[in-house]
Design a protein that fits this description.
The protein contains three helices and six strands; from the N terminus they run αββαββββα. By secondary structure, the protein is α+β, with helices and mostly antiparallel strands. The chain has one domain. A hairpin with a 4-residue loop joins strand 5 and strand 6.
């Protein structure tokens, strides 16, 4: 095959890959500038449930009061976000590796916890996966055991 054909095939493959990857990926459910308005609700700590990474939990403005007072319902669109750090970063001051995100949705729209959607998001805010069974199973177990509030699993 002539070199020009190889180049055209490679370019076509790159264009196809870019088109497929951008169309297939949903946007992250939290804003890129979340740090300006989200509040830390759990400080840096090791999380066995998050691949032994250190996590820091933040709440969106609409999730803050329900998360902290444990009496108000989470409104639609409320977001609880875990920044995930290397297990050696015990202060959560280094590079964020990825995020775990739970978003309050209309009842019956979420996967197993019927009122939450879930995302695993890369450091560049690309969605890695959605409605993660591992997350919903763990959080559903917390809710069934009466631990935490509305599937959040932890007391602040």
């Amino acid at each position: 095959m002539p070199r020009s054909t190889h180049i055209r095939v490679a370019l076509f493959a790159l264009v196809l890959l870019e088109a497929c990857s951008s169309d297939a990926t949903a946007p992250a459910e939290f804003p890129a500038d979340y740090a300006a308005t989200y509040t830390e609700v759990r400080n840096c700590r090791l999380s066995v449930d998050h691949d032994m990474e250190n996590v820091r939990v933040l709440a969106s403005p609409s999730a803050l009061a329900p998360y902290m007072n444990r009496t108000d319902p989470f409104p639609l669109g409320a977001i609880v976000l875990k920044e995930q750090y290397d297990r050696l970063d015990t202060s959560c001051s280094g590079t964020i590796l990825d995020y775990s995100v739970m978003v309050r949705v209309a009842k019956g729209n979420g996967p197993d916890l019927q009122d939450w959607d879930w995302q695993h998001v890369s450091a560049d805010h690309s969605v890695i996966s959605e409605d993660i069974g591992r997350c919903t199973r763990c959080h559903k177990d917390c809710a069934n055991q009466g631990v935490g509030y509305a599937g959040t699993c932890e007391q602040p």
